[in-house]
Write a structure and sequence with these properties.
mainly beta
Length: about 160
């Protein structure tokens, strides 16, 4: 008696957006690095993603980190306490996109002092895989409404 078993493998495909052009954010000041009372090397007003930051698709790369936080910062006091800006962004839905899911709509909150979700804006996110099989995220981000608000990312 012989038994034949067949298996199938599902390959998750990149969303078409993963193959389109996007900009890279790799400024070291963008990396989330909690510093009680704020970073001593922070500029007097902090960095911001207002003008000339353009509404577009972005990927975070080291040394800036690699993805937007999915929870508000645990430390919210002091100028530049999270990264080198006064109000840092995080994803209100509290989840990352999943490979094969496609583009998802996200709400981006900006945390400042005791305000967990101020200056909320809409964005998009998609999970992608590079040729080596490494997962990365793309975000559709818009310029911030005021200065001292920036997009900072978590490191690996």
């Amino acid at each position: 008696t012989s038994t034949t078993t067949s298996t199938s493998t599902t390959t998750l495909e990149n969303d078409a957006q993963c193959k389109q052009s996007y900009s890279i954010l790799k400024d070291i000041w963008r990396k989330v690095n909690y510093v009680p009372g704020g970073a001593s090397n922070c500029t007097s007003s902090g960095h911001c993603d207002q003008s000339p930051f353009a509404t577009a698709w972005y990927q975070f790369q080291e040394p800036a980190g690699y993805k937007l936080p999915i929870a508000p910062p645990v430390l919210q006091s002091g100028n530049c306490a999270v990264c080198q800006t006064s109000a840092s962004a995080w994803i209100e839905e509290r989840r990352d996109p999943v490979l094969g899911e496609g583009i998802i709509d996200i709400n981006i909150c900006n945390s400042y002092s005791t305000t967990e979700c101020g200056w909320k804006t809409q964005g998009k996110a998609v999970a992608c895989q590079d040729d080596g099989g490494e997962l990365f995220y793309l975000y559709y981000l818009s310029s911030t409404t005021t200065c001292d608000i920036a997009y900072c990312a978590l490191g690996a």
